[in-house]
Predict the structure.
Amino acid sequence: MPLSRRRFIASSLLLPFSTLLPRISLASPEVGFDYVLTAQPATLDISPEGSTAGFGFDGQFPAPVLRAKQGQKIRIKFINLLKEPTTIHWHGLRIPIEMDGVPFLSQPPIKSGEFYIYEFTPPDAGTFWYHPHVNSIEQLGKGLVGAFIVEESDNELKKLAFDQDIPLLLKNWHLDDQGHWLPFSTPRQSARMGTPGRIETINGLRAPQLKVQAGSLVRLRFLNVDNTVMYRIVMPKGLDAKVIAIDGNAVNVPFSLHEPWAMGPGMRLDIAFIAPSKEGQVIDIKNRQGKLNFNFFTLITEGKAAQKTKIIPTLPASVIPVPDIKNAQKINFTFEWQGAITPADKLLQGKHDFWVINKRAWEGMSRDNIPAPLVKLELGKSYIFNLRNVTQYHHPIHLHGHTWTVLKSNKRDIHPQGYHTDTVLLGKNETVQVAFVADNPGRWMYHCHVIEHMNTGLMGFIEVS
Ligand SMILES: [Cu+2]
């Protein structure tokens, strides 16, 4: 496996911490794959007073950080060692429908003991992630979430000259202090903001202290892999930190964060900064909850700064197709609440439809029963989606297989103008306009990434042909 080996060496130079090391999967000595990956039961050490039987990719949390190269094919043999069917969806990647990992729509569910070969060429460099699209509440909730990094070309990487590249998986676990699972979902909460977990972690650690080299150029890749929780990232004043990418896509001009940055489930944020040049400096990264900032994790500088002065680079420009705004067809989508909360405080059992897209709740699907798409789009044409949230709750709306250009909102200025995303966060009563070229043929899931909302109606698919 020459490719994996090379990747391992290159990456380990960037990541000096054992908890952050990408682990190359070697479940079996197979040739011809960049990764061999399993989903399997795992023992999780998240709670302070006891461990937990959960799930893990390769039986571990955090999951292996998978690294691909922009424009280069990657082959992953994925083996299902769970006792139930699963798949992997590669969130944010513009890849063919057969590789999208949605059961029935893009592939048969992978049964227990079976494998599936995922093989694709990622067109965009950036921070993406991977997770099942089967029994999502439990499979994601119990630990099947991981970072998928598409690296820039070697030439570009050299120019960017990051000294450290640190993926940060943000996840809130439905666990008590003794390690017992708590309900992932209750009807009462599903019909509102969703059911939050109790234990907050970064890469599976509670309020960790991470070391960074003094004076080094650091790339932090925040990934909200939680089922429910919204994070608002606050960078410390006095640190020269800049946003270089939003939801996996490079921004044209890196910018400083003056306000907390809201990240709903599924969203990502890349921040670059130059670490203070003195040893032992403490950098607190905070999460805003309500009106207060809480410590999320701490970076501590170590070692001696190199002589050379660093600058924060701009990532290579996005290659997302540019929509033809003037001739684009406009389509309205209204995300709405439709009541019917019975029984109010019992565990979620049976099917509840609390949410609708254009008056329709997702009915679920099987091999022999695939519902109609929300809309059919013409391959190659440009579209403007008018995303209307007429509820009192936030919804991070995610489209598979395509990347949107964000045009405007009725509530806020869009900054940066025309940024790209696969998951747009709609605030309460907010309407956001996004545009894109429907250039990827297939049936693409289109849903809220608050998993409970998606499970209780806020899901559908679009067909591009
Ligand atoms: Cu939602």
About this structure: The domain at 5-153 is CATH 2.60.40.420 (Immunoglobulin-like). Residues 1-28, 341-349 have pLDDT under 50 and may be disordered.
